[in-house]
Design a protein that fits this description.
heterodimer, A: alpha+beta, Rossmann fold, OB fold (Dihydrolipoamide Acetyltransferase, E2P), 2 domains, six-stranded mixed β-sheet, 20 strands, 33% strand, B: mainly alpha, MetI-like fold, two-stranded antiparallel ribbon, 13 helices, flat
């Protein structure tokens, strides 16, 4: 039950700026995911919030109170580490109760709190085991349990699922989301995996080179990326980009030239004039094979996933990725034509900034909670 | 050689040949043949001196009077075991080993934590602190005897004078303590070296998790660092004990076991018997007693260490 504010946070490691002024507002009970490529500063930012790294300048506040000078233990946060960081010589129970033991909580009360956390995570049969006798998923749950026992105002997760195998990751993802609802806590989650970000976040913060590129709901980032970096980073396979020339631009839309004829993208074209070069971005899943389509390419690679098939196409200098359904019978070297729905297209200016769409996507403001059956009573 | 496709163990009931799942045989004549030379050499190396010691310990064998010879029965042992000097020497041995172990392990652990911190010139400081271990025991003991603990020329005497305190004649007033100090000085760097490498393998995340859990530096040391070092500490104790039971050079160079028997340990006691009293028989009996003592210690020690290493 806490809010978090970051005001112009800067981190300087001996002359190298790793975080270059980040502003962020995390609301109560929100699930915020920091996502970005390796080295973008997302883990550093989380460690600064945790108090494990000092803040060079700027202010970190929890519930409006500045905590820059408060030690990591007194911020009321709990962190789950990527390596789990369980204490190997302590049993699961001692691991989970370590913070209480340091806080000199009486033994009976300690046990009670550990037991109630263990109940939430189904860890009760494992309480006497040492961490090395646990599987990866169980260790993960113990690490989360250790955080729950502290009853923190904000949970911090530093890539907690990256050491798990794929099947377990899916399971833990759902479990974490369930936990978020059950605990009603504010959670901040760092990951480089965009599926984790898209499925769990109320709000995604995309970071690159120590700067926030965009903050928004998963659907907002997918449908209305604010620049080329976010457009390329969110979505898999990556968005296709093609340099195009503007034929005509107005506040009603922009006509751009494509090899097989013009196409009209419904974006705000003010400030753009005919003859300018823009970058057209289309997601692979919005391209479709079409014998009358305006675009053409030769298949270089086919990746068949069963349900869907990814086609890697080549046309002159440009490369395209197209996601078609699983029954595509084409072979490598086939020449195919394809088209797209121009309302799904994005246009980016030379500096990478996106031109605003005329219509907001209807799902942009959808709440994550509306995506699943809630376990909490009173909700629909 | 063509191997049958079904496991050979079904063919050879009752034979010692076992087969691993990988298909390799375990044991058997070929292995014995390959291990033979090494094992034989080790056995000879161990058994011949042991046998000779045992043999001499039951002989009347004194270099001063070669005319007295022949089988002595248990005489050497009864003579030795009723000699209060043996018990003094044994007590000194245990005191020496115990104190040096305590000082070097506790000091080594604390120094390891200290030298793990970042500070200017850490590399040089680490090198210097490990240096005593590379000094020959005789040289080290002589340096301590003549330059540090000497009641007239020593640095300690000079310091005492400077502070107006009475000068201590280390080797005559507290001989065993002096030797414990010298040997600790030599072995602390060894403990430090092993424990420092162990401390470096401590996962940073664990320390950070403990910090988030509210652990201060002392709590981190007690609950995280020390348990992590448990294994390394038991290895240090085991190795040091093997060497400390046989300390000789330091005593020989400084106090010669004196005054009286105040700094005589078992090794030095046997030396006195054999090469000062020329009583080879008695010295051999002392040697056998030393072996028994070492084995008693070793059984307890290796058991605990092995248990520690298992987990």
């Amino acid at each position: 039950m806490a809010t978090l504010q970051l005001n112009n946070i800067v981190k300087d490691f001996g002359g190298t700026q790793v975080i270059k002024g980040v502003d962020l507002e995390v609301k109560d009970r929100e699930f915020v995911v920091f996502v970005g490529p390796s080295g973008c500063g997302k883990s550093t930012l989380m460690r600064m919030i945790a108090g494990l790294e000092s803040t060079t300048s700027g202010e970190i506040a929890i519930d409006g109170e500045r905590i820059n000078e408060v030690g990591p233990a007194d911020r009321g946060l709990a962190m789950v580490f990527q390596s789990y960081a369980l204490y190997p010589h302590m049993s699961v129970e001692d691991n989970m109760g370590f913070s209480l033991r340091l806080a000199k909580v009486p033994k009976a009360e300690r046990r009670e709190k550990v037991l109630s956390a263990a109940r939430i995570l189904q860890l009760e049969p494992l309480l006497d085991r040492k961490p090395r006798a646990l599987s990866g998923g169980q260790r993960q749950r113990v690490a989360i349990g250790r955080a729950i026992v502290r009853n923190p105002s904000i949970f911090l997760f530093d890539e907690p699922l990256s050491n798990l195998d794929a099947a377990l990751r899916v399971q833990m993802r759902i479990e974490l989301a369930r936990l978020h609802e059950e605990l009603d806590a504010t959670m901040i989650y760092v990951t480089h995996d965009q599926i984790e970000a898209m499925t769990m976040a109320d709000k995604i913060v995309v970071l690159q080179d120590g700067l926030v590129e965009q903050i928004g709901s998963p659907m907002a980032l997918y449908h209305h990326p604010c620049n080329r970096f976010v457009a390329g980073f969110i979505g898999s396979p990556k968005m296709n980009f093609l340099d195009v020339e503007v034929r005509e631009a107005s506040s009603e839309g922009i006509n751009v030239a494509l090899p097989g004829g013009d196409c009209r993208v419904p974006v705000d074209g003010r400030g753009v004039s005919a003859g300018d070069t823009l970058t057209l971005g289309i997601r692979p899943e919005h391209l479709k094979l079409d014998d009358e389509g305006p675009l053409t390419g030769k298949i270089v690679v086919i990746e068949r996933l069963g349900g869907v098939t990814s086609l890697y196409l080549e046309h002159g200098d440009s490369e395209w990725i197209l996601v078609a359904d699983g029954d595509v019978a084409h072979r490598v070297h086939d020449q195919v034509r394809f088209s797209f729905d121009p309302t799904c297209g994005h246009l980016f200016k030379g500096d990478g900034e996106a031109l605003d769409h005329l219509h907001r996507h209807p799902l942009v403001d959808i709440d994550r909670k509306q995506n699943r059956v809630s376990s909490a009573p009173g909700d629909q | 050689m063509i191997r049958p496709h079904f496991p050979t163990r079904f063919l050879q009931w009752g034979t010692p040949m076992r087969e691993r799942t990988s298909g390799r045989t375990v044991g058997g004549f070929r292995n014995l043949f390959l291990q033979g030379p090494a094992v034989t050499l080790l056995l000879l190396w161990m058994l011949v001196p042991l046998g000779m010691t045992l043999w001499f310990s039951f002989q009347r064998y004194n270099l001063i009077n070669p005319m007295i010879s022949g089988f002595a029965g248990w005489d050497n042992y009864t003579y030795l075991l009723t000699d209060p000097a043996l018990w003094t020497a044994m007590g000194n041995t245990l005191l020496l080993v115990g104190w040096v172990l305590a000082i070097s392990v506790i000091g080594g652990t604390l120094l390891a934590v200290l030298f793990q911190q970042e500070f200017f010139g850490r590399g040089i400081a680490r090198l210097l602190v490990i240096a005593p271990f590379f000094v020959m025991p005789t040289v080290g003991a002589l340096v301590w005897k003549n330059m540090l603990m000497h009641p007239v020329n020593g640095v300690f005497a000079w310091l005492s004078n400077l502070l107006g305190l009475p000068v201590i004649d280390w080797f005559s007033s507290m001989p065993l303590t002096s030797i414990i100090i010298i040997v600790s000085w030599q072995w602390m760097p060894f403990a430090l070296l092993i424990l420092l490498t162990a401390i470096q393998s401590l996962d940073d995340d664990q320390v950070e998790a403990a910090r988030m859990d509210g652990a201060g530096p002392l709590a981190i040391f007690w609950f995280i660092t020390l348990p992590h070092l448990k294994r390394a500490i038991s290895v240090v104790i085991m190795i040091e004990m093997i060497f400390l039971l046989t300390i000789f050079a330091e005593i020989f160079v400084t106090t010669s076991g004196g005054p009286g028997l105040a700094s005589t340990n078992l090794a030095y006691f046997i030396y006195i018997r054999a090469l000062l009293d020329f009583d080879v028989g008695g010295a051999s009996a002392g040697g056998v007693i030393a072996i028994i003592l070492a084995n008693i210690v070793a059984i307890f020690l290796i058991r605990t260490v092995a248990k520690n290493l298992e987990t």
